[in-house]
Specification:
Length: 150
């Protein structure tokens, strides 16, 4: 079952044809689903099936530029992912530095598309001043952004 309507999929294909400059790697970390049944953490995944379908639709919008790897964290203990689904975006062979935990639907979907375009163009979309400030950081920094559907 498609997550995106045919009209949205067509818009996405056209947008990616215009804006994706280079290849992008998507990695979806998942766990065998349990439908909509809510289970304790570490058991099942209520939204992994939908996240997989959405990730596949993103890949299918530009299969010549977008690759997708599905990782089952229950079979890959060294995946170093605690929450599923988790979707990561990276340049080929690069370290994925952008990730979404949970199903990136609604307003979050636009940020996934934007991140894919920026990664494909090696353009972080930051000002020169911000880039200079980031260069001065002495240690790795993790920035977490939380969104709620309100």
């Amino acid at each position: 079952m498609a997550i995106l309507s045919e009209g949205v999929r067509e818009q996405l294909r056209a947008r990616f044809a215009e804006r994706l400059r280079g290849p992008v790697e998507l990695t979806l970390y998942t766990r065998p689903g349990s439908g909509r049944l809510i289970l304790p953490s570490g058991v099942g995944c209520a939204t992994c099936d939908e996240a997989r379908e959405l990730a596949e639709e993103l890949r299918d919008a530009a299969p010549d530029k977008v690759s997708l790897e599905i990782v089952d964290v229950s079979a890959t203990p060294d995946a170093n992912v605690t929450e599923v689904p988790t979707l990561r975006v990276a340049a080929p062979g690069g370290d994925p530095r952008i990730a979404w935990q949970g199903l990136p639907g609604g307003f979050e979907f636009a940020t996934v598309v934007d991140a894919m375009e920026r990664v494909s163009a090696a353009d972080p979309g930051l000002s020169e001043q911000t880039l200079a400030w980031l260069e001065r950081l002495q240690a790795d920094l993790e920035v977490m952004v939380f969104a709620t559907p309100t």
